[in-house]
Design goal:
By secondary structure, the chain is an alpha+beta fold. 32% of the residues lie in helices and 31% in strands. Strand 2 and strand 3 form a beta hairpin. 13% of the residues are buried.
């Protein structure tokens, strides 16, 4: 008779194949609050997208503007996102993993 622990099999399955996105402490709403409090936008109006990486230790790096072409705004985004508090890093296949994030922003 083969004794099979179903719970252990289920745990191993989810551990092996699950992906978990990085999480900002307090949730995405608090992330938006952080950006709003710290980013100086001047007279800029329009849409932009900021891409950044959350590394396996939870720190943001490789920050760049991927939509919008305002150099001072990109410089400001790099400054603000560079001082962002640590995130809970993403997981892939049971290990911490680097994750590329894209942050869309519309300024009216």
């Amino acid at each position: 008779v083969l004794n099979c622990d179903t719970n252990l099999q289920n745990e191993n399955y989810f551990y092996s194949f699950s992906e978990i996105e990085p999480l900002y402490e307090g949730g995405i709403e608090q992330f938006y609050v952080f950006v709003a409090k710290n980013m100086s936008l001047g007279n800029y109006h329009g849409r932009l997208k900021i891409q950044f990486n959350i590394d396996s230790n939870g720190f943001a790096n490789n920050i760049k503007l991927i939509e919008g072409n305002d150099f001072p705004l990109e410089k400001e985004a790099k400054k603000v996102f560079g001082k962002m508090p640590r995130w809970l890093p993403g997981h892939k296949n049971g290990e911490f993993d680097d994750t590329i994030m894209i942050f869309p922003l519309t300024i009216n």
